[in-house]
Amino acid sequence: MDYKDFGLVNTKQMFANALANHYAVPAFNFYNMETLVAIVAAARDTHSPVILAVSESALKYMGDDMLRGMIWGLNLTPNENVALHLDHGSSFESCVHAIELGFSSVMIDGSKLPFDANADLTRTVVEFAHKYDVSVESELGTLSGIEDENTQSATSSYTNPDDVVNFVNKTGTDSLAIAIGTSHGAYKRKSDDEELRFDILDAVAKQLPDFPLVLHGASSVPEQFVKTINEFGGKMTNARGIAPDQLRRAVQMNICKINVDSDSRLAFTAGVREQLATHPENFNPRDYLNAGRENIYANCVDEIKNIMQSGK
Fold first, then answer.
1. Any idea which of 63-72, 152-161, 208-217, 239-248 has the lowest mean pLDDT?
2. N or C terminus of the chain with fewer C-beta within 10 Å?
């Protein structure tokens, strides 16, 4: 399936535009119809490019045919600048499968491998993907935290700026995810005083001027959603994300794609919990699912405008 048949685009031009105009393209993960519709509505209403990110476990949950049916149902056009992206592809085979389904962008995550093995795997994916004009993202350095089946690690390692030019030249990758202190999940920092390693980002950006850099594990974990979840029966003590001002600073230093997953999960869960708790007589799924969808929409609009600065 050719992604162009869905009205999708790859990420090459959207990243070039982001770098030239100092904003980031949001990559919002989705898992079902409600989360997908909320994300696309927010992007359309703000006239922002957007990357629809799907993890391997989310794809397994939705199923190939259902995912393609939902993308068809969006009635996208190329001028809307929407990409469909495999998030944290774990193997060459998973990336091939996504490309054959109609994804316009794939990430091959070899970050836990030794440098040479990571480069070899990435180059193999790039050679295949570029035959179909599909963009490839790769990663150097490892993020800690847990978010999905194939995005979990108890330890982290920062990206070595001395490695990045060699890696990009060896692989031909279109964008590079780097590790500067972000992490997966809703428990990203132990205190509000922790800062990202902007010295590493600065060194990488100097080594790769005008090259698209990516931040994973960069949800801000909005306090209002955590508070609502806890108020209505949840247990999310000490959930803490990346401060928006730090993310905005990163955008000015060649970060042109920021991944957001936990924020959407929190927004959706907060909406559903509050709706069920305040309307215990309600058993209509449309009502409580819509509450979650509305929360995701509002959060995406806010992050597009105030963090990514990609809207118009």
1. 152-161
2. C
Q: Are 109 and 15 in contact (CB under 8 A)?
A: no
Name 248's Cβ contacts closer than 8 Å, sequence gap at least 6.
307, 309
Q: Answer yes or no: 2 catalytic.
A: no
Positive or negative: CA dihedral 244, 248, 254, 260: positive
What pLDDT, on a 0 to 100 scale, did the predictor assign at position 195? 85
**181-to-11, 24, 34 alpha-carbon distances in Å:** 25, 18, 31
Helix pair angle (33-46, 262-278), 10° resolution: 110
Q: Give the homologous superfamily in CATH for domain 3-220+242-261.
A: Aldolase class I (3.20.20.70)
Phi, psi (5° rounding) for residue 126? Answer: -60, -45
Cα(113)–Cα(36) distance, integer angstroms:
32
Check pLDDT > 80 for residue 193.
no
Give the pair of three-digit tokens for residue 27: 């990559």
Q: How far is CA 83 from CA 2, 26, 156, 226, 250, in A?
A: 13, 11, 29, 29, 22
∠170-152-145 over CA atoms, to 5°? 105
- The active-site residue, picked from 45, 65, 87, 116, is 87
**pLDDT (tens digit per residue) in 64-83:** 999 999 999 999 999 999 99
What is the reported pLDDT for 145? 45
